[in-house]
Design brief:
heterodimer; A: 137 residues; alpha/beta; Rossmann fold; two-stranded antiparallel ribbon; 5 helices; 7 strands; B: 311 residues; mainly alpha; 13 helices; globular
Chain lengths: 137, 311
């Protein structure tokens, strides 16, 4: 295990992007930052700028309006980086699959490393998903 | 003049860059840990900031299209150079007050402004509206806090009658610490609050207010330049309290049991700064300017008048 992968796994900074979610997954993601789960124990910090991020967390089925922005943000993320599709909608479009304004799940636009299903996923599942994804890097 | 490696060693290893960076990163960890305790959390492990810096050094560096390339990449180095120089000067004088090392109070005051200058240049060069706004707020903040800070610092100079840092430490070794004078207690409090603004910690984190400006001047930075900015901030978190201790609290002393006292002095100031950070809301920039040019400056001038009277 090199210094590079050690440091990446010990300090993943996450950037949260909602591409048309119902706000359910977003609130579960914020739950991870509360004192009960306290992801700062693992060095996970929520950052506001995509330039600082190591993990792009996408919630929601991708709408027609959000798709180009999602692609642009992924291109602007400094590599190596991780993409996490959070929630059933992000993984497979969920109940919005046949909707006229949905392009499709996140992996139709950008490559996804980790899928965390659930409606919404539990905070434990989110933490476990990010940790498993970082082990791959 | 013969060539000697000693000054280089001073700048790069012991009192200068490496030492200050390591202790600074550890103090940033103390900051995060104490903040976590205040918020009833566990907080990160001790190596967290080292992991952050190493990770950022390995990441891709992105220079945004249309930004000022030279200014964008040069700005973090300017701040780092300033922090390194000022830490070297302060430490060499603390370790050996009689040394003929150049650098008096005015040089130190100028160099302490360098990291903020780097932030302004970087934010303006990044061609991001949030970065530009952050840089402009940083500029206003400098204008606000420098006036009371300099008046407070010169209260100590007035008391000693010398502008050399070595003389100030020597005076305190002979006739007790500065903090026993009422005038210097006032000056110390003013300087402490100005140090909070210099570090842009919470009541004065107006330039990088994350809820409104994302990260302010640092928005467009990624990879190594961001790591250098973080490192500079960590070094300032270490060196500013040490500077205040040097001026008002007898300096850092490393003979026998004095080591423990010096560390405790530093930790006391650090924890005070962190607690202020965790228990206050952010001010608006106009409120900060009013606060600094109003009550703080009046208090600092009052302290100076007391010093002139002889208290």
């Amino acid at each position: 295990m090199g210094l590079k992968s050690w440091s990446l796994r010990k300090s993943p900074w996450i950037f949260h992007l909602s591409t048309g979610s119902c706000n359910n997954c977003d609130i579960e993601l914020l739950d991870c930052l509360t004192p009960k789960f306290d992801v700062e124990r693992f060095g996970i910090v929520l950052v506001g700028s995509i330039r600082h991020a190591d993990a792009l967390i996408v919630t929601g089925a991708v709408t027609r309006q959000a798709a180009p922005k999602l692609k642009y943000l992924w291109e602007q993320m400094p590599k190596p980086g991780l993409v996490v599709a959070l929630g059933t909608c992000g993984c497979s479009s969920g109940i919005f699959r046949d909707s006229y304004n949905i392009i499709g799940p996140v992996d139709k636009i950008i490559p996804v490393d980790v899928y965390v299903p659930g409606c919404p996923p539990k905070p434990e599942a989110i933490i476990s998903g990010i940790v498993k994804g970082l082990a791959k890097l | 003049m013969e060539f000697s490696l000693k000054p280089l060693l001073y700048f790069l290893v012991f009192p200068g860059f490496a030492f200050t960076a390591i202790v600074g990163l550890l103090s940033s960890w103390v900051d995060r840990k104490v903040s976590a305790k205040v918020q009833w959390r566990v907080g990160p492990p001790w190596y967290q900031n080292f992991a952050d810096i190493i990770k950022l050094l390995h990441k891709e560096i992105i220079v945004p299209q249309g930004s000022g390339f030279t200014g964008f990449l040069f700005a973090p180095l300017l701040g780092l150079a300033g922090a390194t120089l000022v830490s070297t000067i302060i430490w060499v004088i603390n370790l050996n007050p009689d040394s003929g090392f150049v650098g008096d109070l005015i040089v130190v005051l100028y160099l302490l402004a360098f990291p903020s200058l780097g932030v302004i240049i970087g934010g303006s060069a990044s061609r991001n509206p949030l970065g530009g706004l952050g840089a402009s707020r940083e500029m206003k903040l400098i204008l606000a806090y420098e006036l009371p800070f300099i008046i407070a610092v010169f209260t100590a100079v007035l008391k000693v009658g010398s502008i050399l840092l070595g003389d100030i430490i020597g005076y305190q070794q002979v006739s007790g610490i500065m903090l026993r004078h009422p005038s210097c207690i006032i000056a110390f409090l003013v300087a402490l609050i100005c140090a909070q603004a210099k570090l842009t910690l919470v009541p004065f984190d107006i330039p990088e207010a994350e809820q409104e400006l994302i990260a302010g001047p640092f928005t467009e930075y990624s990879g190594a330049p961001l790591a250098i900015f973080k490192l500079t901030r960590a070094m300032m978190l270490f060196i500013l309290p040490v500077f205040l201790i040097t001026l008002f609290w007898g300096g850092m002393n490393f003979h026998g049991w004095q080591i423990l006292a010096s560390c405790l002095k530093y930790l006391a100031i650090l924890v005070f700064i962190i607690l202020v950070k965790n228990t206050n809301p952010r001010l608006r920039i106009d409120q900060a300017m009013k606060f600094m040019w109003g009550p703080m400056t009046i208090l600092a001038i009052g302290g100076m008048i007391l010093a002139v009277v002889g208290l």
